[in-house]
Design brief:
2 copies of one chain form a homodimer. Chain A has 2 domains: 117 residues, Rossmann fold; 66 residues, Arc Repressor Mutant, subunit A (Orthogonal Bundle). Chain A is built from 10 helices and 5 strands; from the N terminus they run E-H-E-H-E-H-E-H-E-H-H-H-H-H-H. The first copy, chain A, has a 5-stranded parallel β-sheet with strand order 2-1-3-4-5, sandwiched between helices. In chain A, helix 2 packs parallel to helix 3, helix 7 packs across helix 8 and helix 7 crosses helix 9. The radius of gyration of chain A is 18 Å and the shape is elongated. About 5% of the residues of chain A have low confidence. At the A-B interface, helix 1 and helix 10 of A face helix 1 and helix 10 of B. Chain B binds a DNA duplex (30 and 30 nucleotides) through helix 7 and helix 9.
Chain lengths: 211, 211
DNA sequence: TACGAATTGGGCCGCACGACCTATGTAGCC
DNA sequence: GGCTACATAGGTCGTGCGGCCCAATTCGTA
């Protein structure tokens, strides 16, 4: 029997974190830490050096994809399995580019979670990730190479918070015209045609938070 | 030692359902069934007659609040604890009116879940529910007495799915004008000023699903 | 039977929004 | 020194959108 796999759980919902922890402990994993936001995940990843990190995409402060990017930057051998609500192609592609080793939709079974974590350790990649990598290689779905900038995220978040264009401009100390320009850029990147679709897509992708 | 509390879990995310089941079993509860959508929850509630139902607000087919309404209609003594992502006043109020015995945000601890289920059995109500009932009684936040109609939900869902006004009209075989009228009514009820805010609020309330 | 709510529809008005084009300053990078 | 990306800002144009009037039909129900 080898040493138990050391896990770090990162999810902003305490209920899932705690129930998942109990189940993983049951399965013989060693849960060494828990993070409730992206920044905490980055910090704990460095401090605890876990074997695998189970990380939700949608988190406060820093989203899971960005947190993955920062962790992999510091430690290229880090194994990170992403969790998400929706099976969004763009998110999967972004997660892979950020350096994730696996990808799980929250609708999967617990057995799949355990299996994917073990695969992450052994170096294998999940079917979903492999399929996406294949698609990436073929260049079929690489339009996801449209990275939303920090400023664009700020605009999206303010709109999700209920601001109209003039209010977004006021909050960010820029002109309404600039806000519109950012929006136009966002529409192109997220394949949306109006602010409603853009915000919804951003929510799906975990870029923006719903309070 | 009394008989274990018989539980029915209703949540569309298999991961949470399974991990929660494991944890509840650990705690001595008897999980007699699992439902992945609102209709299944209603059916299983009648079939299994569980002591307590732990039900997510956001579910396919029928949302948790409506499912609660139907279950309570058939069995007024049913104990239902609602689960949700966001602590939305309107949702809490709607859940209470539907007949829920308790209310939990998914950011709570597992101990709180277990405690609330036990309280639901003993007839006590959680602090959150009590506070909301107080507010209801005072008539402070009873603007939630604005029930979204079926037709309005259809309009909201189509907009969330990416339709603009003309497309919604086409899908529902009605004029654009009628769609606008429904939207105006929705804005008043959800305290929104445009379709973006209306859809986001609907997502928060679990009225509309994000695919 | 009569009332209210839901659903349907019309017209008008003003403005916000999105499409398209151009332009400047400021970074970072090879 | 150039190249690219980002953030900033302007203009114009058409139409989608929301506010505010009103009215007809159907339906459950008091």
């Amino acid at each position: 029997m080898t040493d138990p796999i050391r896990l770090l759980l990162a999810d902003d919902h305490r209920m899932l974190r705690e129930t998942l922890k109990r189940s993983m402990l049951d399965e013989g994993f060693d849960v060494v830490g828990e993070a409730s936001d992206g920044q905490e995940a980055v910090d704990l990843a460095e401090e605890l050096q876990p074997d695998v990190i189970l990380m939700d995409v949608t988190m406060p402060e820093i989203d899971g994809v960005e947190a993955t990017r920062r962790i992999v930057e510091q430690r290229p051998d880090a194994r990170i399995v992403m969790l998400t609500m929706h099976a969004d192609q763009d998110v999967i592609a972004a997660a892979i580019r950020a350096g994730a080793s696996g990808y799980l939709v929250k609708d999967c079974s617990f057995d799949e979670v355990a299996a994917t974590v073990r695969e992450a350790i052994s170096g294998e990649v999940s079917q979903q990730v492999a399929a996406s990598m294949l698609r990436e290689a073929k260049g079929l779905a690489d339009d996801a190479e449209s990275v939303i900038t920090k400023r664009e995220i700020e605009v999206l978040q303010l709109i999700a918070d209920g601001c109209a264009t003039p209010e977004v401009a006021e909050q960010l100390f820029i002109s309404q015209k600039t806000v519109k320009n950012h929006l136009a850029s966002i529409y192109a990147k997220l394949d949306a045609r109006d602010r409603t679709q853009a915000v919804l897509q951003a929510v799906r992708m975990g870029i923006v938070r719903l309070y």
